Amino acid sequence: MHPLDNEALKLGAKAVRRRRLDAENRQDFISLLGRVVVILLCAWVLFTQVFLLTQAKGSSMFPAVKDGDLLICYRLQKNYAKNDVVVYTQGGKLRVGRILGREGDLVALDDSGTLVVNGAVQSGEILYPTYAKDALEYPYTVPEGCFFVLGDYRTQSEDSRDFGPVPLEDVQAKVITLLRRRSL
Questions:
Q1: Backbone angle region of 83, left / alpha / beta, with phi > 0 → left and psi within -120 to 50 → alpha
Q2: Which of 1, 86, 153, 166 could lock 62 by a disulfide, CB 3.0 to 4.6 Å apart?
Q3: pLDDT of 135
């Protein structure tokens, strides 16, 4: 065999190895890119369809939720209970409030700032009196498919006393946890 033929075989083998390595690198890159796309798609679905991340604006839920807190909410909740803190849409804005009356509940507010739902005085950990506003007449029966939602900072919040009951379809999610602004 001629020495130049031997050298050509070596160069050909090197070229084949380089092409094979390039093809493996391309396959690895395509595989990695596919995995990244799948992870991003899963994250998009998770945070647009299952969870809601939003920042609290205003102090209507003070002291439970403070202005600037990051709220982590669950969108797939179907049955809301009394005292659930929810994010809902009203007037084109996302708001945070506590459900105090469900459909069929009788809500009454008196001049002393006492909230009564179905004959039971509601006090809990609320520090502020609950005075009636002009939007509704009390006692008020919550209509079907709606919630009576109040903010915890009762003297400063805009809630069902201002704009009436919140329809179920306007409730976006149930707040499951929050991160305080100062801890970010």
A1: left
A2: 153
A3: 86
